[in-house]
Amino acid sequence: MSKAYIPQDTWAVCTFQQNTGPQKLIATRYDRKQFTVLYKGDKNFIFLTVSDKNVREKFICKKPMNMWMAIGGLVVGLILASNPIGWVVAGVCAAVLVASAAIAVITHDCTGPLKAGKWINEKSNVSFDRQKAITEASMLSCDNGGVLQPIISYDVAVQAAKAIAYENMKETAVTTAAAVATGFFMGKGGGFLKAIKGVFTKSGALFTIGGMGATYAMTTAQSRMMRGNSGYADNEIYQRMNKAEEKDLSDPATVEKETYETTKNTALSGAPPSIKDLANVVQLYRTGRIIIQDKALKAQFDQLSKMNKVQLRNSPRARALVKSIQEKRPDVFNEIKRSPNSKPIRLRPQMRDKAIAHLESEIKKNRWSPSNENSLLTKGASIALFFVPLVGGYFSENARRKLAENAVKDDTSGISVRAKAKE
Description:
about 10% strand; 15 helices; membrane; alpha+beta; two-stranded antiparallel sheet; 5-stranded antiparallel sheet; transmembrane helix
């Protein structure tokens, strides 16, 4: 099937964009010295080539947005950990996040990354002004990681831009929320400097390197699984994107770039993943079991709460409970003893009450205290945060799919100049 050549001011959408509208592709003088091939002779509609790699107005890119919102979220989390929430604190937190978003928008410029990018699926046997021509089937791979797709129809371009932007906004929201949570738990655990100091210890560095490797492996596997979805097997745009973004890990340069990007993103987020978080799964399970056991044991003592001294002394259930905790729960047994050397065989009211108070304290401390390193809240959060990149990856891949779903609806009948050969 023939493909339309692309003139200047053709609409384009980017898989990394967060603004809800498309932008226009323009001719640039990077390698191209002249513009002589025009659409219908109109000097304002120059046919584009592989050397034309820019847009009339920049996109709002999710990559710097995620980075700055992660940094801002980390600061907000630290503030929340050290101050009770109130109108002033809430205002400061909101100001930090707004400032982070503003920095991401103001400091980012598409021109540099696009100039360093590359057009793929160009028309290799046709040249305009000594540069290979591009068609509607071509894509511009940005050095920041996104892919730009030309779209002739304005309505289709708007639909695609909105769908992509919403998915990327969801990804940023998840990244920001995770950063706030990370900052909060850092604050409760001794602060940012203590956490970073731990990273630079020998064991901390190994855990962090392992965590980065595990995160990369998980997200890579997720990407391959989602891109292999049979529902998109016949979508030529989706398949072209997959081919364009396929990474050759046998290439040392690719490995070097991937390592650099992973390390940079981790460092700038302020929250390096640690393989130790995965080890917390076991600890979480054990802590949960202890809480369940403590509740069950407390219930047994509660059943004896109305018995007096004589009733406790004559109760087979009370004697069996003392024997059970002596064998299975020495921590509770030692708590109720009158002296280190005593070995009680009968339960007394004071011993029963001490056991109930001890178990109540353990249940409350383990389950609800964020500052307790063994709490379910802290352990559960650290595990959940480790898998946040998978959630972000899901929305990121959805953005690519939205582009593919919408771009196939493009109407190119308005461009009468077309490549005769099949792509």
